[in-house]
Specification:
Number of helices: 6
Order of helices and strands: HEHEEEEEEEEHHHHEE
Helix content: 25-40%
Strand order of the largest sheet: 2-1-7-8-6
Shape: elongated
Number of strands: 11
Strand content: 15-25%
Radius of gyration: 20 Å
DNA sequence: CAACCCACCTGACTGC
DNA sequence: TGCAGTCAGGTGGGTT
């Protein structure tokens, strides 16, 4: 259930529960997701160790053990962590169960669930992280980048790729998935099909601003979704976020009343308003 | 290199 | 009720 805002909210929820707790048991119910899970290495790294940091980079969640290394989690299209009072497997597509312990407290169980299995569970040492193949080519974080507009403008010169595909490429900027790409481009008034290299500086200023606002609003919305995370069935959805164009083909644009268009772009459904986006 | 296409999976939904 | 076809929030790898 993951673009950047969902991973951010889930990371915050996991941190609130797991930080400072000891991973007393690691159980894998299969050996591979999108890639093989280094099950032995993961267990050796985490079993009996205290979680010292829970963070997000791009759409990855990281669990740190001081002096040891990181657990790396990606949720793919359908992944999620569920917090449960039992380690008993309750869902069909549960692939890993982590037992968290703390003195004089009841154990808590984190269930990694992912029906489509596009997710990733991996681990590495502290020094391996920055050169890890999933991380070494990543672009900047959109919510903490000093000057995203300049960065995108510079990188996009002479590129004929549609701006939407350019925006969704994590080498340029991380975390903007298919929904928020359409939403941010609407907010910035830029057509998704326009060549990235033809988008000018002022349009990139608007786009950087739009990405920030869209992701920030979604995080706020996701926060409400995840508030009762411990009891929830783990199905966040997007109900709290008002989408302007995504999945609204044929409906009236909220700004001008024009019919929202849908096109396929680089294999992904793309939504925009012909009148509001030049 | 840049741009595209595909595969990897299950499940939900549509139309016959 | 069933069955085939389509689509889904991601991304790495292979091909032009």
């Amino acid at each position: 259930m993951p673009e950047l805002p969902e991973v951010e909210c889930l990371t915050n929820a996991v941190r609130a529960t797991a930080l400072g707790w000891t991973v007393s048991d690691v159980r894998f119910l299969r050996q591979d997701l999108r890639a093989p899970i280094p099950t032995k290495r993961f267990k050796a790294l985490f079993t009996g160790q205290k979680l010292s940091e829970i963070s997000r980079r791009s759409k990855y969640m990281l669990w740190k053990v001081d002096g040891q290394g990181y657990g790396i989690f990606h949720l793919g299209m359908s992944g999620n962590f569920l917090m449960r009072p039992t380690g008993e497997v309750q869902m069909k597509h549960t692939h890993a169960v982590f037992t968290l312990s703390r003195p004089r407290r009841k154990d808590v169980y984190l269930h990694f669930v992912d029906p489509r299995r596009f997710g990733i569970i991996d681990c590495c040492t502290l020094t391996e992280l920055e050169d890890h193949k999933y991380f070494r080519e990543l672009g900047p974080e959109p919510l903490s980048c000093e000057n995203l507009a300049d960065h995108l403008f510079t990188r996009s010169r002479r590129r004929k790729q549609p701006i939407k595909a350019f925006l969704m490429d994590a080498k340029n900027v991380v975390g903007v998935g298919n929904i928020y790409a359409s939403e941010a481009l609407f907010r910035a008034g830029i057509r998704p099909l326009k060549a990235a290299g033809k988008v000018n500086t002022s349009a990139y200023e608007r786009l950087a601003q739009a990405v920030d606002e869209t992701l920030t609003a979604a995080i706020a919305a996701g926060g409400t979704t995840f508030r009762d995370f411990r009891n929830a069935d783990g199905n966040p959805g997007y109900f709290a976020l008002r989408l302007n164009v995504y999945d609204r083909a044929g409906a009236a644009c909220g700004q001008c009343g024009e019919k929202i268009r849908q096109v396929k772009l680089a294999g992904r459904s793309t939504f925009y308003c012909r009148r509001c986006q030049a």
